[in-house]
UniProtKB/TrEMBL annotation:
InterPro entries: RsmH, SAM-dep_MeTrfase_MraW_recog, SAM-dependent_MTases_sf. GO terms for molecular function: rRNA (cytosine-N4-)-methyltransferase activity. One of its GO terms (cellular component) is cytoplasm. GO terms for biological process: rRNA base methylation. The keyword S-adenosyl-L-methionine applies. Belongs to the methyltransferase superfamily. RsmH family. This is Ribosomal RNA small subunit methyltransferase H. It comes from Geodia barretti. Pfam families: Methyltransf_5. Keywords: Methyltransferase, S-adenosyl-L-methionine, Transferase. It comes from the Eukaryota. PANTHER family: 12S RRNA N4-METHYLCYTIDINE METHYLTRANSFERASE, S-ADENOSYL-METHYLTRANSFERASE MRAW. Residues 1-22, 275-294 are annotated as: Disordered.
Length: 320
């Protein structure tokens, strides 16, 4: 197995806090690829605080955006935007259910879909959400705190071997030792408890990356069923693109990027699709200097180049 590659920027939050506002990553590059046009319909599957959505709406006066996010904390920003912007609509929900969201708003095919995976800055910086390595908080880690198992409940329920497998899958070489410590210290209740269990197993930080980084990422990924959710979205989204439509996915570690790369390469073997670029697009030095969380970002693009069966592309772009 290839261990997910990680860079210090995304993988540790032990850096001084940035502004709680979320700075949209690769914003201008995403815009160049989506090339929003008047009359176009776009889906921002990870609305967050709406940075990318606003950029799309500003870029094309007649463009419309459907925003999705499963975190209830995204809703106020979405409501504020929707109040003054009739071209924007928000649905609380999972991007793996993209198809039913599109059906709900009556959109069949769309011109662009963006998935900006991972955490927003406010999620990471709010200790109560339980994502932070730096601040102690309840061991939660759910994108939607209203549903599903918390990280604490998951780690209480799993067997030691299952925990080790989870960590190993995220490239944690000391997975067995960490799993043994976790089980020995159950019940873990806080992020501090989890971090302390990891440090008891592997020792204190030696490099720039916190020793609990991969463990936190593995647990977060399991709590939110991130691989399954991403796989469902990658299955659904390409078929909802109109001709010239673009699917853009920003990932932040190779465990996220790998399935995107493989899915896009498979699809690009079909005559209907092509890759935007062979290699992932990374932030330039200016962006990674200004926004540390952007440093591990990796953007991949898939474009539809043939009409969907029965697709009518009208000059006003209003074909369904
Ligand atoms: C990196 S942030 C997006 C930031 C956004 N692009 C912006 O500029 O404000 C990722 C967002 O995706 C949301 N999210 C994660 N998994 C999701 C899922 N399966 N379905 C819907 N939203 C999800 C998170 O709650 C978070 O708000």
């Amino acid at each position: 197995m290839t261990a997910p590659k990680m860079t210090a920027s995304k993988m540790t939050d032990s850096m001084p806090p940035e502004s709680p506002a979320h700075v949209p990553v690769l914003r201008d590059t995403v815009l160049r690829w989506l090339a929003p046009r008047s009359g176009g319909r776009y889906v921002d599957g990870t609305f967050g605080r709406g940075g990318h959505t606003k950029a799309i709406l500003e870029a094309a006066p007649g463009a419309r955006v459907l925003g999705l996010d499963k975190d209830p904390e995204a809703a106020p920003a979405a409501a504020a935007l929707a109040a003054g912007e009739p071209r924007f609509r928000f649905l609380a929900g999972d991007f793996s259910e993209l198809g039913s969201a599109l059906d709900r708003v009556g959109w069949d095919l769309v011109d662009g879909i963006l998935l900006d995976l991972g955490l927003s800055s406010p999620q990471l910086e709010t200790p109560e959400r339980g994502f932070s390595l730096r601040h102690d908080g309840p061991l939660d880690m759910r994108f939607d705190p209203g549903s599903g198992e918390t990280a604490a409940e998951l780690l209480d329920r799993l067997e030691e071997r299952e925990i080790a497998d989870l960590l190993f899958g995220m490239g944690e070489r000391r997975s067995r030792a960490i799993a043994w410590r976790i089980v020995g210290r159950r019940p873990l209740r806080t992020t501090g408890d989890l971090r302390a269990a990891v440090i008891a197993a592997v020792g204190p930080r030696r490099g720039r990356i916190d020793p609990a980084t991969r463990t936190f990422l593995a647990v977060r990924s399991a709590v939110n069923r991130e691989p399954q959710v991403l796989a469902a979205a990658l299955h659904e989204a390409p078929g909802r693109l109109r001709r010239e439509g673009v699917l853009a996915v920003i990932s932040y570690h190779s465990g996220e990027d790998r399935p995107v790369k493989h899915a896009f390469r498979r699809l690009a073997e079909e005559p209907r699709f092509e890759l935007g670029t062979r290699r992932p697009i990374r932030p330039d030095e200016d962006e990674s200097g200004a926004n540390r969380r952007s440093r591990s970002a990796c953007l991949r693009i898939l474009r539809r180049i043939e009409d969907a069966p029965g697709e009518i592309v009208r000059p006003d772009g209003d074909g369904r």
